[in-house]
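Researcher: Please predict.
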Amino acid sequence: MAFHSPALLNAEETTRFNAYLREKWSADDKPETEWMTVTKAKAAIDALRIQEAASVAELDAIARFIEVWSIIRD
């Protein structure tokens, strides 16, 4: 429910959900970390820039989203 309808969460549930997301996004990049982390996302953006696989504007927008999301969630 938290992913699909976060507006239905009460304050305590929202706090716990945000902590869960922060923990996942901030996780160390170990072999057992199978999900996308901030570090992995930034590396992927850098790789796409080098490969010129997406427009600079699109990659900049994604990078800004990650930075803003990281600030908001802290």
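Model: Residues 25 and 36 are 7 Å apart (CA to CA).
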